[in-house]
Amino acid sequence: MTKKIEQIKMRETLYNCLAAVSHELGMTPEDYLASFYQTVADQGDLPFERITSEEYAQAMLQEIGLGLSQPVEELKTPDDFERWFGDEEY
Fold first, then answer.
1. pTM above the 0.70 mark?
2. How far apart are CA 69 and CA 72, in angstroms?
3. Any residues with CB less than 8 A from the CB of 12 and at least 6 apart, and which?
């Protein structure tokens, strides 16, 4: 079987993080990427759940809200935002 060499450009900090994780798993970054590619090929899809940017933003707001004394509310309308930011309790 012939192997194809693929060059991937990525930020150095991203590569360093990949190298650290790969090392913890006893792999090289190249092994890790090949394993990822194989999983995508086998499954015919990404090996993780896709979320919308709205779902991501909501998750980030919930994470930030964990430090608040009040529960996180969904802010959907301009009135919701006005009430939230105008309330001294928060």
1. no
2. 9
3. none
Confidence (pLDDT) at 27: 92
CA-nearest of 9, 3, 1 to 34 is 3
8 Å CB contact between 71 and 65: yes
Going 54 to 59 to 62 to 67, the CA torsion angle's sign is negative
According to the model, what pLDDT value does residue 10 have?
87
Residues 15 and 29: beta-carbon distance below 8 Å: yes
pLDDT, averaged per 10 consecutive residues of the chain (90 residues), comes to 79 90 90 90 90 88 70 78 70
Q: How many CB atoms lie within 10 A of CB 19?
A: 14
* Torsion angle defined by CA atoms of residues 7, 19, 50 and 47, in that order, rounded to the nearest 10 degrees: 80
Q: From residue 86, how far is each of 26, 61, 89 by CA, in Å?
A: 52, 18, 9
